[in-house]
Amino acid sequence: MSGAQPQPSTQPQSPPASQPQPERQPHRPPQAYPAPSSGTGGAKGAGGPEGDPSGSAGSGGQGAVRKPRTGARTIPRTRKARLRVAKADPWSVMKVGFLLAVALGLCTIVAVAVLWMVMDAMGVFSTLGGTVSEATSAEGGGGFDLESFLSLPRVLMFTSLIAVINVVLATALATLGAFIYNLSASFVGGVELTLAEDE
């Protein structure tokens, strides 16, 4: 081989001509209400055909203004739920009934004490005591002393006794009522309640 063979010359290839990209227009959401027509420019403006947002502007360059609804009124929706009391726990019913009966007994004792003080300040016991003593008095003997019989300690003692009896009976009746309700709920399904959410 007498000489070197010539290498094929590589010419730089020119990059392909870039195709013209279409001009991207900004996104315009559709208008809920048509643009108000005016004397200088309306929906058929010089900037574009009918319905084109770019040509709907007037001479001032302002677009269509969306007007709020005046007659529409939002009605609140109330959620409801139907529940059923299938069983009442007798132990919890007994505790609640006992506490309510104790509170009612204390209120009764306080109310009776206040009422006795008011009546004693008005002189009711002394007047009734004198009348009863004159009516029950015999010859040479005194009558029944109502004022000493209706003294405050004795009245409070009777009231406390009635309050204790009330506590026992109310607790027993509440517990018995819970058992009766559970027995009847097993047959009829219990009491249905409809609960609504207040907004």
Automatic annotation (TrEMBL):
Protein name: Membrane protein
Record's compositionally biased regions (Low complexity): 1-12
Domain named DUF3566: residues: 79-197
Compositionally biased spans, kind Gly residues: 39-50
This protein's UniProt keywords: Membrane, Transmembrane, Transmembrane helix
Residue intervals passing through the bilayer: 96-119, 155-181
Region (Disordered): 1-78
Bias kind Basic residues: ranges: 66-78
Source organism per UniProt: Streptomyces cacaoi
Coiled coil: none
